Amino acid sequence: MTTLLWIIGPGFPAVGAALLICYMMRCRMEEAVAQERGALAELRSSLAAQRESLPQTLVDAKAEARRAAFDMFLQEFRVEQRQYIHRSKLFFLTRKTLVVEERILFRNLPLCNWVEHRMPLEETAGPWAPEVTIEAGGQSLLQ
Description:
single chain; alpha+beta; five-stranded antiparallel β-sheet; 2 helices
């Protein structure tokens, strides 16, 4: 019997130690699984938030791209302008007129013909009285 005790005796503490180690490893595994579940929950919540904000982000990106493309398109248009002074004589009346011509171009292609604007500058009456002037805004009387 003492032999049996010598054989079984050390087995009980070994079994007890094995059970204790199994319990401790089980607790560690449960803790690791809980940490992984927490990390997975955080990832799922961030993924859900991104899914909710993704359509609005796409709409904003498309609107920004359209705006940039439209701005680039509008920068291709330009106005070409030229101006000169036109003098005309009619009997004893001399007129000076500022002529401004404009046209719209897309890149180098004209989109319309020249549009002319005339603005009277001054009118003078005859060679015998060059100092008498009829201004465009006010009216001077010929003397």
